[in-house]
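Letters spell out the chain; backbone shape is given numerically. Take this protein:
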Amino acid sequence: MNKNVPSPQAAAGAPSAPSAPKRSLTPRRRAREYALQGIYQSLVMRRAGSLPNAAAIAKQLAEDPGFRRCQHDLFQGIFAGVLERTDELEGIITPALDRPINELSPVEHAALLIGTYELAMDLAVPYKVAINEAVELAKTFGGTDGHKYVNGVLDLLAQQLRITEVQAS
């Protein structure tokens, strides 16, 4: 098998996990990774002027062999929740940015949407977990220092969205 042939996700423009080092993923981490890939595809399509088809994106992701090992309800909650509330989430994120949101890389943008969604909409997820998971997604799929930017923005948002929880820690 030729290792230089891109995966179906890479060929479709979605970020793919690095091939090395191999790491053990929890079903929850895997669900967030698939959600990031789907949100990434949606963002790229929007930037190109196309209307994303969430059902088609989810179907494509579900065909990946690793998808069966993810926590499906978490994937669906994050993926659908972010896509349904993208404008609202971007309204929360934008004041914390040092540049226009459309200048973010799609990976940073997707990681910020996921982190903000969990901070604002899923109070069962501790704020430190929401931030850490989004940072790990940015480390895995993003550029060299993108995770630092994601961390800084989400830390600022946590102080606004989860002030009681942040002050208690």
The CA atoms of residues 44 and 106 lie 7 Å apart. The chain has nine helices and no strands.
